[in-house]
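A quick aside before the break. I want you to see a complete sequence-to-structure record at least once, exactly as it would be stored in a machine-readable document. Don't worry about memorizing anything.
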Amino acid sequence: MTELQTVDLPTTIPKHKKSLLSEVAARTAGKSNIEMCIQCGTCGGSCPSAADMDHTPRAIFALLKAGVRDEALRSNTPWMCVSCYYCTVRCPQDIHITDVMYTLKNIAVEEKIYTDSTAPDFSKTFINMVENYGRSFEVGLAGIHNLKHFIGRLPGMTPMVIGMLTKKGMPITPPKRIKGMAQLKKILKRAKELEAV
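That is the input. The structure line, written in tokens, reads:
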């Protein structure tokens, strides 16, 4: 468990840095309401992953308002978000916190600004499988991820893997592509186009 860091923010915000909050708000699906944050702390108090975050969501929003781009994008907070939407539901200002976390992840990946590549690589591998098969392939996802990031853990995982395979808990062969892959590819292509706007 990591200890939450305090964030010392500048008392005045330089004009050239004010655009970060606007950029995140514009790139977040729907109306994020991020500028409405009153720093109440309900999000961090509601979050099941807050203890593992280096900044609470409200600290991230303060960084965004202050234009502290690198620190906001290098934070592990968006990567620790489990997308439960509990913070979003409880937010008195109706800020779409989970959606903002997705936006921050996307920007961090685009700009290659993150301190640990484990979560971005997992995300890319998962997306690649969905784009190729229309679904996840758990054995392949876990295998690729562990080979890339946790190769030292593999010998200790052998009994679990053998148990899962012998009990047919997970298929070892890649899945068949879903019906309608052409439609899925069109949907994903259109989503990427809309994201680029």
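Two observations worth writing down. The CA atoms of residues 11 and 163 lie 58 Å apart. DSSP finds eleven helices and no strands in the chain. We'll return to this after the break.
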